[in-house]
């Protein structure tokens, strides 16, 4: 589900930028879950979402919540 949300957010961000062009581009913020942050495919997932949707990388803001920082990391 995380990949779907990421791609959907990027698609919406690209649509908004196209609909409302301006000098400073709009940004789309996406909260990452613990599972996404620990995923070995996170970088590839982000890269793919950007490529598929055409959203510039600089327009995507990945956010982590304070509660995520309090989570004990699991060992692999």
Give the SSE map:
Blueprint: H1 2-19, E1 28-31, H2 34-38, H3 42-53, E2 60-63, H4 66-69
Parallel strand pairs: 1-2
Short description:
With 76 residues, this protein is mainly α.
Describe this structure in words.
The protein is mostly helical and 76 residues long. The protein contains four helices and two strands, in the order H-E-H-H-E-H. It is elongated and about 40 Å long. It has one domain (2-69). It has a two-stranded parallel sheet. 14% of the residues are buried. The chain starts with a helix and ends in a 7-residue tail after the last helix. The protein has helices at 2-19, 34-38, 42-53, 66-69; strands at 28-31, 60-63.
Roughly how much helix do the residues carry, as a percent range? Answer: 40-55%
Question: What's the domain count?
Answer: 1
Report the uncertain regions.
none
Task: Report the β-strand fraction as a percent range.
Answer: 5-15%
The chain-level mean pLDDT equals 87
How many DSSP E strands?
Answer: 2
* Computed CA radius of gyration, to the nearest angstrom: 14 Å
The rough form would be described as elongated
Report the oligomer.
single chain
Q: Give the topology string: H per helix, E per strand.
A: HEHHEH
Termini separation: 21 Å
Number of helices: 4
Describe the sheet with the most strands: 2 strands, parallel
Strand arrangement across the biggest beta sheet: 1-2
Overall structural class, as computed from helix and strand content, comes to mainly alpha
């Amino acid at each position: 589900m995380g990949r779907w949300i990421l791609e959907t957010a990027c698609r919406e961000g690209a649509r908004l930028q196209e609909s409302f062009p301006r000098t400073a581009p709009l940004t789309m913020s996406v909260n990452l879950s613990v599972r996404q942050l620990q995923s070995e495919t996170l970088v590839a997932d982000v890269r793919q979402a950007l490529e598929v949707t055409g959203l510039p990388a600089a327009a995507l803001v990945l956010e982590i919540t304070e509660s995520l920082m309090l989570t004990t990391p699991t060992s692999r």
